[in-house]
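Design request, tokens follow.
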């Protein structure tokens, strides 16, 4: 007669379950049927249950942060960029109400927040991991690295539901150049939503489980902690902005400079001090300085047990009687933000002072709300700052307007015909050499019915910074009313190392200048 096992039977206690890298809310039974004693059936069944658990539970539990936390981080990033971003949307792109423009029944602000929420839909979250030492995704289920996922080619994520960086660029181009307002509004909506999706991926990279190959199949303590907390409470002292020069250099893991926000391949697994600067990928900083629940050295983790830092031997006790151990490179032992783990068990913390070379014999390390609070004080400001860098890099580049006017003159068509008024649209803009742009330059004019027509297109090699456009009057123009025009750049652009398919837009409103011809 065989034996029927349940999940409770196979994992004798919560302590043992955690020993394998899980956290279980179940009151697990400590008794095992004697039928299996001394056989291989029980270990094999455990493996089977792990596989089933991954299949059924990981898609939901692999979130780094709760959706409301992502929304708050994105909202804070937008607030930081609000002044400059509003000005750019209004003055460069023709969105008269900036972040509050009506687009697809929403606004750019709300669409970015929505995108940072819905990136966790379905199985997308399996692609939200990047371990910077091996440059790999969630290997246990074959997920794509978050960097690769963020830079998927147009439509490669999920067709119409693709929201990679490259999708965002394509939507941006169509938002500027599609013929009808309805089409442009649709693509504006997709542009801002895609930016929210991309920001989500960098936000996940500021969670240790997502950079230490830890699928946390049942729960994640830092995730649960921040679900109860406000993002705003962790950025009162400011945010942590990445060094802009990172986005002027070729990517270390991918050629695109944008990938440096994730990982610059500076951290090798043996040089954690190199991760403390502003010129480091967020995955590198998070990996080197913070434990996840299931990757604490000496705790029997089955997830990425080869991660070297933080090392147990570098931890320093906080002042007695505190049970917390601190990481010196994050601050002094008395600094609350340096708390890295809690020493548990019946062993006195003082005993740790005698030898910290075999901590697992003295007690177990664990993470609790005090530790999560310390972690959040470092990681949340980075999540906000790196998210803001996405917006700053995406909406970059300006083309100063040197002249924009509609010249109207009277034309004498002969004795038999009356004089008539004709006009020429005269626009002159500058493409600064500092943009390092090479690609296509397109010129559009918006007609009185709202349609946008392409009037000129040329290949730009950057040799002449000034370009003038002159177009005869179009019947659809209303005489003496301002004429809205758009110049769009599409191609490789810096500064420094070039992004392959950058988009820059410039909108203007040409006024009428009457210049009658002598009769």
């Amino acid at each position: 007669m065989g034996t029927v096992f349940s999940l409770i039977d196979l994992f004798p206690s919560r302590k043992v379950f955690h020993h394998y890298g899980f956290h279980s809310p179940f009151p697990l039974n400590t008794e095992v049927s004697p039928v299996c004693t001394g056989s291989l059936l029980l270990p094999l069944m455990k493996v089977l249950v792990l596989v089933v658990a991954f299949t059924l539970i990981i898609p939901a539990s692999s979130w780094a942060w709760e959706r409301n936390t992502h929304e708050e981080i994105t909202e804070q990033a937008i607030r930081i960029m609000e002044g400059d971003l509003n000005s750019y949307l209004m003055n460069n792109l023709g969105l008269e109400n900036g972040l509050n423009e009506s687009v697809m029944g929403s606004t750019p602000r709300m669409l970015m927040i929505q995108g940072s929420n819905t990136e966790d839909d379905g199985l997308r979250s399996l692609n939200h991991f990047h371990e910077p030492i091996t440059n790999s995704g969630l290997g246990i289920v074959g997920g794509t690295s978050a960097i690769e996922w963020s830079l998927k080619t147009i439509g490669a994520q999920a067709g119409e539901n693709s929201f990679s960086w490259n999708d965002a660029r394509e939507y941006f181009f169509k938002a500027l150049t599609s013929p009808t307002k309805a089409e442009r509004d649709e693509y504006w909506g997709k542009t801002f939503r895609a930016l929210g999706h991309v920001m989500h991926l960098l936000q996940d990279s500021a969670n240790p489980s997502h950079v230490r190959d830890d699928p946390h199949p049942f729960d994640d303590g830092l995730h649960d902690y921040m679900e109860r907390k406000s993002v705003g409470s962790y950025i009162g002292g400011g945010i942590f902005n990445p060094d802009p020069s990172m986005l002027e250099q070729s990517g270390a893991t991918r050629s695109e400079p944008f990938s440096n926000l994730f990982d610059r391949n500076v951290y090798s697994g043996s040089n954690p001090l190199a991760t403390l600067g502003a010129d480091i990928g967020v995955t590198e900083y998070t990996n080197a300085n913070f434990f996840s629940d299931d990757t604490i050295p000496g705790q029997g983790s089955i997830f990425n047990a080869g991660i070297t830092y933080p090392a147990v031997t570098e931890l320093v006790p906080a002042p007695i009687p505190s049970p917390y151990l601190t990481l010196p490179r994050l601050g002094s032992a008395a600094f609350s933000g340096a708390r890295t783990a809690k020493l548990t068990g019946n062993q006195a913390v003082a005993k740790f002072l005698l030898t910290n070379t075999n901590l697992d014999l003295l007690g177990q390390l664990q993470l609790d709300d005090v530790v999560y609070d310390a972690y959040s004080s470092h990681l949340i400001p980075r999540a906000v700052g790196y998210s803001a860098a996405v917006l700053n890099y995406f909406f970059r580049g300006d083309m100063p307007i040197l002249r924009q006017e509609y010249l109207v003159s009277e034309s004498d068509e002969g004795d038999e015909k009356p004089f008539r008024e004709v006009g020429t649209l005269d626009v002159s803009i500058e493409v600064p050499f500092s943009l390092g742009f090479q690609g296509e330059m397109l010129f559009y004019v918006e007609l009185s019915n709202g349609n946008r027509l392409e009037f000129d297109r040329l290949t730009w090699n950057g040799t002449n910074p000034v370009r003038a456009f002159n177009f005869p009057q179009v019947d659809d123009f209303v005489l003496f009313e301002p004429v809205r025009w758009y110049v769009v750049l599409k191609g490789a652009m810096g500064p420094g190392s070039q992004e392959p398919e950058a988009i820059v837009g410039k909108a203007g409103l040409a006024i009428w200048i009457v210049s009658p011809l002598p009769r």
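Comment from the thread starter after seeing the answer: thanks! Residues 430 and 466 are 4 Å apart (CA to CA).
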